[in-house]
Amino acid sequence: MTFQDSSFNNKIIFATLIAVIIGILIAFYYSYAQSQQQISYLEKERSMLIKDLSYIKSEVDRLLAYSEVKEIEMQESENRVQQLLDSVGRLNFNISKIEQYRREMKTLEARYTNIKNKQEQLQSNNMELAGKYEETREMLEDLKGRTNSLAETESLLRAKNQELSTELKRKSYLSLEDPLGNGFRLKKDRPVKTNKAAAIVKLRGCVTVKGNPNTNMEEKVIYLQFLSPEMAIIEDNATLVAVNGNVYSKKVELVFTGEEMSVCDFITVPEGSLNAGIYTLNVFEGEKLLSTSEFRLK
């Protein structure tokens, strides 16, 4: 081999080495660029995962403040979110792990949404129950007030009834019998009994007071009440006697000695003012009706 051939071979070997080195450098550059691009992508994904997981964790912590949500279920979700945050923070994952974490995060989001819906439903139910409770409480207060008012009224009525009962027991009424009503016309200024209604100018009421040995000289007041056939009270000389809201025809005062006695008195009416029919005589002592009778005029 000549010197010239040896020099040519060395140039070929050198050129080959240069080409190999350049190929290695090019391969290294592309590998490096691809690695940097992958790292940049992983960093971006890590930031997005941390942001999403942090939001879910804050929402889970917020829901834990409500006692209506099951604490065990919420605590498990919170622990798993924290584990994912720790893993992502250490950057000990690759593209396959990113996909895995993404899927698990979707599961957590679905679980969180379900829990959140339950919480909102519970809050809505609680608000409805609170409204119904308030409405029921107001009704009970109103009923309580009415019950108290009725109780007070009932108590007053019982006291009044007891007072009246005591008064009735204390007050002794006259015992009457044989009440009788008649009509009279005037003949030469003398009253003459008649049953002709058109001629009557006076009505007389009489009653017998039965004796009572337990009574001695007691002042009494009785009231005569004449009623027309139409049950209208007949006036004495165009004047009615009103006592405690009750209306009578005549007031009669007497002194009861305890012995039987007859009591009679008249009322005056305009001649021709009465019509034929059945008339009524009622005899009262105070507000108590003691006796009644009817008489006919023609």
Q: Would you kindly provide a written description of the structure presented here, covering whatever features stand out?
A:
- The protein is α+β, with helices and mostly antiparallel strands.
- Helices cover 53% and strands 25% of the residues.
- The protein is built from three helices and ten strands.
- The chain has helices at 3-64, 71-90, 95-170, and strands at 176-187, 190-194, 202-209, 218-227, 241-243, 246-248, 250-256, 261-268, 277-285, 288-297.
- A four-stranded antiparallel β-sheet has the order 2-1-3-8, with no helix packed on it. The protein has a four-stranded antiparallel β-sheet with strand order 7-4-9-10, with no helix packed on it. The chain has a two-stranded antiparallel ribbon with strand order 5-6.
- A hairpin with a 2-residue loop joins β9 and β10 (288-297).
- The longest helix has 76 residues, at 95-170.
- It is rod-shaped, with a radius of gyration of 59 Å.
- The termini are far apart.
- The relative contact order is 0.08.
- The mean pLDDT is 76.
